[in-house]
Amino acid sequence: MARTAIFGGSFNPIHYGHLLLADEVLEILRLDRVLFVPAAHPPHKSPADLAPAADRHRMVELAIAGHSRFAVSEVELRRSGPSYTVDTLETLHAPGNELFLLVGSETFLDLLSWRAPGRIGELARIVVVPRMGSAFDPESAAAQKVLRALGAERFVRATGGDLPPAGVLVVHATSLPIAASELRRRARESRSLAYRIPDAVIAYIEARHLYR
Fold first, then answer.
1. What is the CA radius of gyration of the chain?
2. Of the N and C termini of the chain, which has fewer Cβ atoms inside 10 Å?
């Protein structure tokens, strides 16, 4: 059984925080690959702040080049309308491939506003990655409400080795204090993006005049 983590997001732009988190989760969960899925039309975000979907997809390609177990999917770029995660998981679900859905702790608490959260819980095992400094409490009423909606019974902490057979996984991976909104502002102001974004992505942003 192959293990694939689905890492969705706007990646506007992708940065080292995304890449380090994905690499650590891949190692902790002993995954076969991490599949980055740039959202074409994120239903919870204003399109005014987004670089074109094709550009965001290309930036992910450039960022992950050379990592043998990272890949990027065009599944949401090929589909018209809002980029709903449940539709993406339906498309990617296949026999012999166990799917894990990576979400931040804030996103997890917002899952009840997503389309068909119960079906999401059927198609993929949810992996919650608390942001560094986050006060995420698995025992809180809000977290337990989402847990029940997903059809799961408990949270289980993953630290490596064999994974517990059931439950929403909580993985504590390094989260760098890098915000995409700050990177866009720096690009607008022609300030340095070095050490925050891979060099190939910086060159692409400059060549395409993104975020100006």
1. 17
2. N
- On whether residue 210 sits in a domain, the answer given is no
Q: Are 72 and 35 in contact (CB under 8 A)?
A: yes
Whose structure tokens read 């949401």? 76
Residue 166: per-residue pLDDT: 86
How confident is the model over 32-81, as pLDDT tens digits?
Answer: 999 999 999 988 777 788 999 999 999 999 999 999 999 999 999 999 89
* Domain annotation covers residue 182: no
Q: Residue 80 domain-assigned?
A: yes
Please give the Cα distance from 112 to 164 (Å, whole number): 24
Average pLDDT over residues 18-44: 95
Question: How many other β-carbons are positioned within 10 Å of the β-carbon of residue 123?
Answer: 18
Whether 201 maps to a domain, the answer reads: no
CATH number at residue 30: 3.40.50.620
Contact 13, 56 (CB under 8 A): yes
- Which of 73, 97, 95 is CA-nearest to residue 83? 73
Cα separation, 114 vs 34, whole angstroms:
22
